[in-house]
Fold each of these.
Amino acid sequence: MNGPVFGDIPACQARTREDRIAGMRPDKALILPLFLICVGCAAPDGGDAAKSGGAIPPLPAEPAAVAEQVRQEFLHAWTGYRKHAWGHDELRPLSLAPHDWHDQTLLMTAVDALDGLILLGFDDEASETAAYILENLSFDRDIEVKTFEINIRLLGGLLSSYQLTGEAGFLDLARDLGDRLLPAFDSATGMPYTFINLQTGEVSGPHSNPAEIGTWILEYGMLSRLTGNPIYHERARAALQALFDRRSAIGLVGTVIDVESGEWQDRTSHVGGRIDSYYEYLFKGWLLFGDAELKAMWDLHIAAVHEHVAFEQSDGLWYGHVDMDSGEKLATRYGALEAFLPGTLALDGQLERARRLQQSGFAMWNLHGIEPEAIDFSTMTVPDGAAGYVLRPEVIESAYLLHRETGDPLYREMGRTFLSALIQHARTDEAYAAIADVRTMEQADSMESFFLAETLKYLYLLFAEGDPHSISEAVFTTEAHPLWPAGPK
Ligand code: DMJ
């Protein structure tokens, strides 16, 4: 299960830090001009715009027309997968070859994308995909998988597809997968191991992290609700509790923990990868199941996060890296994964912070015209090894949720910037490709399944009018699979 490998390409930035900061706190009137500036500076070698023949046409004015354009981009990416990688986990969009994470396929992109095909109204493609999954997907495989990824991409996808279609086969597959993942929770602490063999149940990887331990309650909770078997919910809930009980005296968690001993291995605290969706699921576990204890756990953590992990700078609000015990500030690093937080804060009604942090995420996007994996926000530079963009959704997810909660057109303007940049730099003739280095816009041969499952879904919903499939009543999993407390209408 290898992610894309990014090249080591020198920076191209000529602007000073002050110039960048000045361009990063745009008021509404400045957003479009800034976007044009960023597009102009983003690809010194001519980039993908040159490859695809120059300037892209402007986006339509009407939100519904932009939503339709996103639909067409979704279809474009889906068609590339359908044509070149059907029956496999992923498309490699530059070599136009299929890619499987393991020796045997788990149909990752098909399962991850199916509820999106349904929500965006691609009925024929959805029917064909549903039939293919039901006929061909099997979890009786002698392969070692990453428990977290399989849960969020596959179990979450199957549950959403079941709620949207009522097709019993999806619930059968979800139950089978849920059962196969259960032995992962048989550690001394009840926190799940990182890996499991789907056929033998053999576990490995005792060093895990809050995100991978704490991102189960939505999927396993819904599996219990739909099957009537409480075991899944119980195991996910116990894992959350075990993790919460190991918080520091100031209410923070670290980055790596041993699920056998319960000892922290890395005591760095932040809101990015390896911690992010633990916090997200405490809040959303309350939203979906009304579990008031989860809300209290979220409240305690998020107050500590605001107190110790937030960095107030002259250019705005950021969240960096601190020591989980002392709160000592360790690094001024913020990234594409951290950008989920404004959306979750918005759902909790913490709008002022959410708005300010989203502006920082937007500044990160505009630094080079597409966000890198991370920046050092004290210098507004990209650290070594963090210049890639793997088509991540989080800053778009936050724009969607902020727009939903505030109605402020600012967030659709951000969405236009995101969509234009994706079309200009990440679109290929046959699909979409990750960006190896946002300073050069060189593309990478990867199209993660979350590009369809999350990035384009949130972009579509940001502009869609009405309430397709009563989506406003759904709670989105961390992989953007909507789950409805009482099913979609
Ligand atoms: C997705 O698989 C999920 O959103 C996860 O929580 C974080 N990483 C990717 C997207 O960036």
Amino acid sequence: MRVTQAVRQRLEVRGRVQGVGFRPFVYTLAASEALSGFVGNDERGVFIEVEGPPPRVARFVERLSAEAPPLSRIHDLACADVALRGEPGFHILKSTRAQAAEVEIAPDANTCPACLRELLDKGDRRAGYPFINCTHCGPRYTIVLDRPYDRAVTTMASFPMCAACQAEYDDPHDRRFHAQPNACPRCGPRVWLSDPQGRELAGAPFAQVQARLLAGEIIAIKGLGGFHLACRAEDDEAVRRLRARKGRAARPFALMVPDVDAAHRLVKLTPQDQALLESVARPILLCPRREGAAISPAVAPSTDRLGLMLPYTPLHHLLFQGAALGPLVMTSANPNAEPLCVDNDEALSRLAGLADALLLHDRPIARGVDDSVILGGPDALPIRRARGYVPEPLWLSLKSPAPILALGGELKSTLCLLRGHEAILSEHLGTLSNPAALRNFLGRVADWPRFFEIEPAYIAVDLHPGYASTRHAAKLDRPIIKVQHHHAHLAACLAEHGLEGPAIGLIADGTGYGTDGQIWGGEILLGDLARFDRIGSLYPFTLQGGDAAAYDPWRPAAALLLAALGEIPEGSLPVPSALATRLMTREALQTTSLGRLFDGVASILGICSKNRFEAEAAMALEALAVAAPQAPALPWALIEAEGQRRIDWRPTVRALVASTAPLEIKAAGFHAALAAAFAEAAARTAAASGVGLVVLSGGCFINTPFRSGVRASLEAQGLRVLTHQRVPTGDGGLALGQAVVAAARLSAGLR
Ligand code: ZN
Ligand code: ZN
Ligand code: FE
């Protein structure tokens, strides 16, 4: 009889493979293929040796990637044949507890199905326990203070495990083997309800919260990365009271719904949308609302979309258990633009006037992390990248010659650390003109390099001399590499797709500092990661009033009317024509801002005279356009002048003023004209340069009729179109772009 030949392979797995149940998974997998050998971990990841018949070893290797635990990420898998050992059985080696320098920290993850089952199982020792978790789920980034990832350096350090929890933690075959936040009602954090003065209220906290919400109260809820303010979304009076208390007039509130069925009742969800909503990251997903969705009109007054998320911690799941609350408004408890509130004392002092009661717990939050926001639809677009995604690194095709720290922009600010092929983009850190947000940002600038053990050799910043991030760079005592704002947008999109260009960059943006000192925004660039040329832009107009132009849509409207008609017709703006005309003739910057063009057109159509929050006018204009998808495009032109290809909106504005069509038709016709003009500008650039790749980046691409129009037209012409999939299309993606531009320039010997 012929003996089956055995082989032995050594595998080295790099990536996110510690603290995510990888070794127990390998053990079970080896057992199911009846292989002998061992698995262990070291500072670089996990190593495995398996021995057995070749087909089974091959299947093991295949299944290792295909069936890896939900929170693991394999970035690199090296296999080599080694000498047979013939040992019996398969073993998990004891951890050496060496410096786990290259091992990743996972993002926070939604409660897994197994934990959810235990949470709701009356017989389980953790039934109803709001901090249940395992290696497949639970808090990570929001509790980690230092690395390597170990309980002692998390905010769970002050909760010694009871014998039962410790036994799970020590058992390599248990789902909670090395689950650092492992806890139970006997040994772990607790939750309680507090009045606004900080006095604990007696009784079952969740039942009380439910009763209070049903009675119309507003409750502050300490969650994973910060506090939310919650009230019932169906309760119009409560939602309006929340708006009044928060001093937030119109900016949409996010909702939490108990399950997918409840989501379907409020918004239109594609199967992809549903998958995103239910994904481990559990972002807020923006989707078109259903007609007659049963919520207060005050939830999101100026948009046709709703932002929805599902419960993502056991605490949130318990909130909905056994009570018919309907959808809840879940809005960050911090005042707009301020960093998240993270600790109990701070919450009591900052939220006392906002909340009728506070649901608190004693597991500290290591750092505030917002909910992530994604625009749903066929080409889902990240808007805010935070909880559930950070600090997962992006793996780039280019390799940076030196470690780089990029400081991002000014709005929706983020940081990026780049080392080798690995880029780590921070969570959303807010608007740096807000002093508290700036302090928080500077804290991260100081903390991140230490936390990730990446000592930056260069600092990359925006070209804008006035950005707080740019100004701070001078204090960091490193060589500074300045990156033009819209080049960074282009590079961010290329980089997240693992590309280096060349590409045509259609940038649809609010404002960014140009190489000529003017305010750019709607741009046609041609370039790669290292360099770019400005091929064209919107036809420029006067930006009068500086920052005020972003709040008063009539200011850009006046500039557009004057340029298109030669005058500002009386009664066309909420200010007297003579005053507006006088203002426009003052010395002012020229701009090609697409954001301001949208604002101006919204004002000309009389639909929005004040931006109460960023892009309110543009959102209202978009909502109108969506209602008339078949409207014909208004006239537009492309002009070639002074070596620039310019999208001329003056014929469009003239047609808008002359038209007597319904508002929806005008709004849609404007969108269609803009999409056609941008697409044509890109197509001409492609024909002239031979470059067939077009990147769409910048915050205005959140506008769906515009984005889809540009994409459809370019794809019909055989061009390849890329939009953002992993980092924000707005300024939240700038830091990544800056880092890769800096790296590419260093590689090319440019600076
Ligand atoms: Zn779990
Ligand atoms: Zn315990
Ligand atoms: Fe921008």
